[in-house]
Amino acid sequence: MNNMEFSLLGLILLFPCFTAVLLLFTPYNMVKIIGLSASCFNFLLSLILWIRFDNSTAHFQFLESFSWLPSANIEFGIGIDGITIYFVILTTFLIPACLLVGWTSIQHSIREYYIAFLVLESLMLAVFVTLDLLLFYVFFESVLIPMFFIIGIWGSRERKIRAAFQFFLYTLLGSVLMLLAILLIYFQAGTTDYQILLTTNFSEKRQLLLWLAFFSSFAVKVPMIPVHIWLPEAHVEAPTAGSVILAGILLKLGTYGFLRFSIPMFPHATLFFTPLIYTMSVIAIIYASLTTLRQVDLKKIIAYSSVAHMNYVTLGIFSLNLQGIEGSILLMLSHGLVSSALFLCVGCLYERTHTRLLKYYGGCVQTMPIFSILFLFFTLGNISLPGTSSFVGEFLILSGVFQTNPFVGCLAASGMIFGTAYSMWLYNRLAFCNSKYHLFTAYSDLNRREILLFLPFVFGVLWMGLFPEVFLEGMHVSVSHLIQHGNF
Amino acid sequence: MKELFLNDFKLAIPELFLISISIFLLVYGVVYSTSNLKGYPILSNNISRLALITLCFSIILVMNHPIKEAVFFSLILDDFSSFLKVLILICSFTSILISLDYLKEEKLNSFEPIILILISTVSMLLMVSSYDFISMYLGIELQSLCFYVLAACKRDSEFSTEAGIKYFLLGAFSSGLLLFGCSLIYGFTGLIHFEELAKVFSGIEHTNAIKLGILFLAVGFLFKLTAVPFHMWAPDVYEGAPNSITAFFLITPKIAILGLFVRLFLYSFYDFLFSWQVILLISSIASMILACFAAMAQKKIKRLLVYSAIGHVGYMLLAFSCGNLEGIQALFIYLVIYFIMTINMFASILSLRHVKYIADLHQLVRTNPLLSITMGVNLFSIAGIPPLAGFCSKFYLFFAAISSSLYLGALIGVLTSVVSCFYYIRLIKIIYFESPKTWIHYSTIDKEKSLILAITSFFILFFFCYPSPLFIFTHKIALTFII
Questions:
Q1: Which of A4, A459, B70, B365 lies in the 20 to 30 Å Cα band around A289?
Q2: Which has the closest alpha carbon to B341: B187, B455, B183?
Q3: B76: which strand partners?
Q4: Yes or no, beta carbons of B429 and A169 under 8 Å apart
Q5: What is the rounded CA–CA span in Å between residue B412 and residue B444?
Q6: ∠A34-A119-A350 over CA atoms, to 5°?
């Protein structure tokens, strides 16, 4: 690699961090502009990364490495392959949206808000691009600190501390077992470099133990039943932007961990535990969907539907064939767009009326027609209507799962029906019916900032739904390589 | 004739310098503070700053010692002891530095505590270079005597006096146990020199009598280290002593006693590794579990910090009980980072007026936002959350534990660190999110403390980016036991 060529990936990783430090010194009226333009610039850089990405190889590209602890043989290696590139783009796409959402709704500590999100962006990007197991763990856990502050400081008042605590402690408890597993791997292999660990042979019993430790950490993040309790609480109490980033990226960290680490490194254990994952995922899909029907809080409905969708993703990942895994990655991306957009819609409503309880809403289409159209579009995306990106993802997942286990596929397909049930019922109660105008005194439709905020999401969902091959062609080689690696 | 003793004074230059200056400062203080002519001046601030300069010179003397390695009389001079001496001197330096303003505010006008801190520092320097039982016991006793008085130095507070008495009783008791262990080993081997003990144990059979002696020695040391189940004196004593003295208590003796402990057990009693490893492992697991649950019930800040220090001692004992190179390296990394986090914590506590209860910290973010973020970062680091410095120390510790097959210890360590996370985050919650219940004081932080806070916070935040120097350095220090 030519020494003169600057590292695009390193720049994408560090640029938000530098901006966060810069924001400590900017005058008060320039904070928002500088923060937003920096995050948009980072998004453009990631698009350039996508353009320069080579689809034809499964090797890691844009490789860099910084030696972190040379005496212990741990190096901070970063690199992109076909699976990672899309998460990088999703992250850099969602952060400007988060910053834009808080443009008028965040009234206090604006500078700290922008700094927190930019630091969070750097940390999340580091999770996705790192090729070192220990540093993956470090960044995986370090996203907890900014999220804790975001939920605690800018959340809505009622139970936010309890939610922040639950979020923190649940994820930490699962992850420390993963730390022990990583140290055991390091002791056996002498290195934590991912590419070397892919070639390490772990004994079967040890694989089971290590897989379970990794599972305990990822299962909390996904979230799987029964460790999903932190998610509705955290989503409800977080500010809108916090919910967007939580649903959009932080849930994907768990499934990304499954895909990147559990499956290639422990193939025997993966096959051993696949029935467990199928059971838990199917239970989660059906149970979460049924729970959604009973909710009265808007954000909780979307939070529980997130649980159901993420368990679809794990179902697809553990089907261990090309369609299933590609479908799961596409569903992850689509869920990142659709769920985030749904949270943005709820955020718009909350900003106007400061309540999230469903019984106060009704007949929105009479007073907020543009909002209703957008909300309908994303609700249809949630249902996985053909033409939206979720449909492609779910269809591929179901076709993958049917190949391995038709019974599980049938049960999972019933999840689509439940999904339609709660989404349509929510939309019905919110947009149609009689307007409860005696409860509210003022209405306003979406302003220009909010419409411009939604348009990229609409574009993304339609693009992925109508021309998915653009996204899938980057994944083919990497995913096939992953499946072949484990001899599944 | 005089060539025989030419080098003797050169060997102990730092200790000799420090003790003579402390005697000189004592005389200076006594003469001038009782002088009618000068109007009975209060010399505590003056002597504190002179003590700071003295400690700086001592650090320079230790680092530029003319002789690098020597064994003389009952003392030894090598890399290990030099590193620990520098660390102890830096700890004393920072403890006195952060207490300058506190002494003025609390009107602790006597200068004798400073002299006692200097003398106890000398004793700790002698402890880490001790190489047989007599110098070890003398060093421990000198340090303990100074500490008994230091705990009681706030003369108008019953709390402080009670702390002094408790410390004295239990310290004397534990010194007695230590001495009994030494006497048992002397009785069954006839040796007191560490090097001779190391050589003799590889030949003789491992009788239970010697294991009994090792047990008493270990118990004596664990008493001094405030490890469970010998920790009962620690919360009361450390809480009763004035805040700045507690800062000194929490860090420096642990370094000195751990240094002594490591040298004695890892060098002399290495053949009995499997006996004392079990003792230390039990103590460490008990410390970790007790500390994380006991600290949850505390309502006072200092008691919470003391229990968290007991937990940290548990982790350090886990690192020590590995008994190999990585274990000692992990121990020293943990010690250095523990020192930095504790100094940061105490500098923050000392900057606030009238904080005794945890609830006094409420809404600190409104009056001192920068101090709140410093405390927040520090608390996350003490809890062991990546990517802060506390996590780096813990990960290497668990790595050493797993590589020595101490699976139970590692598992319990990891689980208790999650449980202890709860009350650290509760502190952060109180600082940031609690609604104010009473009037909120505001007091400015003086320059010395703010400098210490800045340096330590910078270290905690950015240690993760470049941890190599500390790791390589401690590796070199730990190698003195292998070679």
A1: A459
A2: B455
A3: B71
A4: no
A5: 41
A6: 75
What residue type is assigned to position B19 of the chain?
Answer: I
| In-domain check, residue B335 | yes
Q: Is A36 exposed, middle or buried (CB count within 10 Å of its CB: 0-12, 13-18, 19+)? A: middle
Using CB atoms and an 8 Å cut-off, which of residues 443-472 of chain A contact chain B?
none
- A61-69 and A74-80 beta bridge pairing: antiparallel
Give me the numbers of helices (H) and strands (E) for chain A, helices first please: 22, 2
Q: Is A225 helix (H, G, I), strand (E, B) or coil?
A: coil
Q: Which residues of A touch B386 (CB under 8 A)?
A: 137-139, 141-142
Q: Name the helix (H) or strand (E) containing A78.
A: strand A74-80
Contact residues for B457 (Cβ-Cβ < 8 A; gap 6+): B344, B374, B377, B378
Angle at B446 between CA B442 and CA B452, to 5 degrees: 115
| Assigned domain for B437 exists | yes
Q: Which residues of A touch B471 (CB under 8 A)?
A: 69, 71-72
Give the gap in angstroms from C-alpha B467 to the nearest C-alpha of chain A: 7
DSSP B331-400: HHHHHHHHHHHHHHHHHHHHHSSS--BGGGGTTHHHH-HHHHHHHHHHHHHHHT-TTSHHHHHHHHHHHH
Query: Range of B478's domain?
Result: 294-483
3-state secondary structure B89-107: HHHHHHHHHHHHHHHHHHC
* Nearest residue, CB atoms, B386 vs list A70, A141, A161: A141
CA distances, A335 to each of A93, A384, B118 (Å): 14, 10, 64
Any idea where the domains of chain A sit in the sequence?
1-265, 273-487
Q: Which residue from A71, A138, A172 is facing B418, i.e. has the nearest CB?
A: A172
Helix (H) or strand (E) holding A79: strand A74-80
Rounded to the nearest angstrom, the minimum Cα separation between B21 and chain A is 41
For the four alpha carbons of A34, A35, A37 and A38, in that order, the dihedral sign comes to positive
One-character DSSP codes across A256-325: HHIIIIIHHH-HHHHHHHHHHHHHHHHHHHHHHHHHHHT--BHHHHHHHHHHHHHHHHHHHHTT-SHHHH
CA distance B233 to B238: 8
pLDDT tens series, chain B, 483 aa: 666 677 777 888 899 999 999 999 999 999 988 888 878 888 888 899 999 999 999 999 999 988 888 887 788 888 899 999 999 999 999 999 988 888 888 877 888 899 999 999 999 999 999 998 999 999 999 999 999 999 998 888 888 899 999 999 999 999 999 999 999 999 988 888 988 888 888 777 778 888 899 999 999 999 999 998 899 999 999 988 888 889 999 999 999 999 999 999 988 888 888 889 999 999 999 999 999 999 988 889 899 999 999 999 999 999 999 988 999 999 999 999 999 999 999 999 888 877 788 877 877 887 888 898 899 999 999 998 888 999 999 999 999 999 899 999 999 999 999 999 888 988 888 888 777 667 667 778 888 899 999 999 999 999 988 898 999 999 998 888 776
Per DSSP, the three-state class of A26 is: coil
* Beta strand residue intervals within B27-133, DSSP E: 70-72, 75-77
Cα A41 from Cα A96, distance rounded (Å): 9
Contact B380 A145 (CB under 8 A): yes
CA distance A186 to B399: 8
- Partners of A78 in beta bridges: A64, A130
| CA–CA dist A72, A189 (Å, integer) | 12
